[in-house]
Amino acid sequence: MSSTIAELTSIRLGTIDYLAAWDEQRRVHEAVVNGERPDTVLLLEHPNVYTAGKRTEPWDRPTDGTPVIDVDRGGKITWHGPGQLVGYPIIKLPGADTGLPVDVVAFVRRTEQLMVDVCHELGLTTAQRVEIKGRSGVWVPADERGPDRKVAALGLRVSRGVTQHGFSINCDCDLSAYDRIVPCGIRDAGTTSLSAELGRQVTVAEVLPVVERHLPTLLG
Length: 220
Known about the structure:
The chain has helices at residues 18-33, 104-122, 194-198, 204-214, and strands at 2-5, 8-15, 40-45, 49-52, 69-70, 77-80, 84-90, 138-140, 149-159, 162-170, 190-191. The chain is 23% helix and 27% strand.
């Protein structure tokens, strides 16, 4: 299923194997680079999988032999799986056709803002981004329930001025999946979900249309 919002095409892929989605990303990326299709966001879920970005350290990885897929995005190790909505924006950044450097940081901030806005619309009004190096994504600040907790993650790559990889929002996933790793290499914080924070089941199906409404934020 696909839809177009503000010159941005959104495609729902359902549940799809990580490597199959990676192949689709590369195919769409090539088409966007060549001007053969508009900016596109793939929205999906993955079966259980751990992926390691370029900054992953050996001690961040599972110690029980759990397989990990090494990928070419930034960031460290993370988990994807059922109950987590994943978005892969494949978007040509402003200035990409001029040969001048593109503003990747600005795109990161727009992606974080999208996720903050989604969390707020769903009722998690404490969700915010933080100005601490290495803590991209969206966080729930420490409170009586525990330390800072990440509810949405971010890991990007920009090739030929067009973005790849993207963001994930924990909806009603099994948070024990993070117990085998050091998520994003951060040891002094936790991981949470919309369901855990709001005290009700928040499904991927509920979050999908909310994310789609906020996709124009990616375009600035």
